[in-house]
């Protein structure tokens, strides 16, 4: 069997790697892929853009793939699954109507309000004067969000009214995120600990993945601007049975029911970014309509269930009763980024340290990379690599991940040095 993975980042490398590990898969095509997928066994890059929907449909038909798995959010929101369905092709991901849960933060907030899903108090604005009046009337800190897709960077946590006013002005003027910021959501800044809860949905049945936690701020100590994620680990010690039941009962199940009730049935990976307060109450920060990045990398390193079988079960609405098998060892992933990220970056720097076999239980997933004409791997994006490792404890997994990081370099590379610090503190209390 052949399968097609759409996208070119670290999540897509991890998905292609997991699919290629299935004995049922003959070849994984990745459109467009990166230098990591180009050098993965049983994987082949195809020069088709992730948002070129007609070309993707043509590729899937010509190659007679068993199914297509969509990685990034933009083609989902643009209707790639709708186009595949109309062509009679199997494609795992939500249709555009359901993907609006990620495509519009204003829609997501109003949806949660309609269906009683816990989230922060908010107001939505497309007028700067009205937004400014509201910002002046509420107490900081507050969160300013661009309504549309902004590659995971359309969120500003404003500690002062002046910061909030500036963020709203930059978004609504189009300066910060273009059309994605033509409408903004202003919401209360929730306090607590963040948690990523990702599940696979087949329209009705919900199969949760292992728990995970990522690190959005760029700098150590959770400081600096928000990014798409500077690292992640799984499992998250914060997740216990009581919290699991709250998240399923209060967030995932009403979300899937609500989407069905509104004629937007959901099939594919559903990501709920949560804030857990000190009393253990979960509130939704955001929804993503896909596997998270960088959560997918350490998660799929732990997954023992055949990923090809799992995707097929979702496509065939056979997830009811499915239980996933996970490596019991924790997994830690550390993102190595290009200088300037999440702002403007330079590309084309050669990367050293990727040669040779990877130690057992480790994996370097490529995100922003490509191959130069001379065959060298060079930087080609903001989040360049995610160095992942399994270990008997979080401490050991983290140590192994940072050993991989230490062996890799390029001009301007940087990374956080405290990934998994919350889990580490729980594992080794002072």
UniProtKB/TrEMBL annotation:
Pathway: Purine metabolism; IMP biosynthesis via de novo pathway; N(1)-(5-phospho-D-ribosyl)glycinamide from 5-phospho-alpha-D-ribose 1-diphosphate: step 2/2. GO terms for biological process: 'de novo' IMP biosynthetic process; purine nucleobase biosynthetic process. Residues 209-232 are annotated as: Disordered. Residues 109-316 form the ATP-grasp domain. Its cofactor is Mg(2+); Mn(2+). Keywords: ATP-binding, Ligase, Magnesium, Manganese, Metal-binding, Nucleotide-binding, Purine biosynthesis. GO terms for molecular function: ATP binding; metal ion binding; phosphoribosylamine-glycine ligase activity. It comes from the Bacteria. It is an enzyme of class 6 (ligase). Residues 213-223 have a biased composition (Basic and acidic residues). Signal peptide: none annotated. It catalyses: 5-phospho-beta-D-ribosylamine + glycine + ATP = N(1)-(5-phospho-beta-D-ribosyl)glycinamide + ADP + phosphate + H(+). The keyword Nucleotide-binding applies. Belongs to the GARS family. This is Phosphoribosylamine--glycine ligase. It comes from Halorhodospira halochloris (Ectothiorhodospira halochloris).
């Amino acid at each position: 069997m052949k399968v097609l993975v759409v996208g070119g980042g670290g999540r897509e490398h991890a998905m292609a790697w997991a699919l290629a590990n299935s004995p049922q898969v003959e070849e994984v095509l990745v459109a467009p892929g990166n230098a990591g997928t180009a050098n993965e066994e049983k994987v082949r890059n195809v020069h088709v853009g992730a948002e070129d929907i007609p070309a993707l449909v043509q590729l899937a038909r010509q190659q007679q793939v068993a199914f297509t798995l969509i990685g990034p959010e933009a083609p989902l929101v643009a209707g790639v699954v709708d186009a595949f369905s109309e062509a009679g092709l199997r494609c795992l991901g939500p249709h555009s109507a359901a993907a609006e849960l990620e495509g519009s933060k204003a829609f997501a907030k109003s949806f949660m309000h309609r269906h009683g899903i816990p989230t922060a108090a908010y107001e939505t604005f497309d007028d700067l004067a009205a937004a400014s009046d509201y910002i002046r009337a509420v107490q900081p800190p507050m969160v300013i969000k661009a309504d549309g897709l902004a590659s995971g960077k359309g969120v500003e946590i404003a500690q002062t009214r002046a910061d909030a006013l500036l963020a709203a002005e930059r978004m609504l003027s189009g300066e910060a995120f273009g059309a994605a910021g033509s409408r903004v959501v202003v919401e209360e800044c929730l306090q607590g600990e963040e948690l990523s809860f990702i599940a696979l949905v087949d329209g009705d049945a919900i199969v949760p993945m292992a728990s995970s936690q990522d690190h959005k701020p760029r700098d150590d100590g959770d400081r600096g601007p928000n990014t798409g994620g500077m690292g992640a680990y799984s499992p998250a010690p914060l997740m216990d049975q009581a919290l699991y039941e709250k998240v399923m009962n209060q967030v995932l199940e009403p979300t899937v029911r609500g989407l069905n009730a509104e004629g937007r049935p959901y099939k594919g990976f559903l990501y709920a970014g949560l804030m857990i307060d000190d009393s253990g109450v979960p509130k939704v920060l955001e929804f993503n309509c896909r596997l998270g990045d960088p959560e997918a990398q350490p998660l799929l390193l732990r997954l023992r269930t055949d990923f090809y079988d799992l995707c097929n079960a979702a496509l065939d609405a056979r997830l009811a009763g499915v239980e996933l098998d996970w490596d019991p060892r924790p997994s830690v992933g550390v993102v190595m980024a290009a200088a300037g990220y999440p702002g403007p970056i330079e590309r084309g720097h050669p990367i050293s340290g990727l040669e040779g076999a990877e130690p057992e239980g480790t994996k370097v997933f490529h995100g922003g990379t490509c191959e130069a004409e001379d065959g060298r791997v060079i930087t080609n994006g903001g989040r360049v690599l995610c160095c992942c490792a399994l270990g008997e404890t979080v401490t050991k997994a983290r140590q192994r991940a940072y050993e991989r990081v230490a062996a890799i370099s390029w001009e301007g590379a940087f990374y956080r040095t405290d990934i998994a610090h919350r889990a580490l503190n729980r594992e080794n209390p002072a």
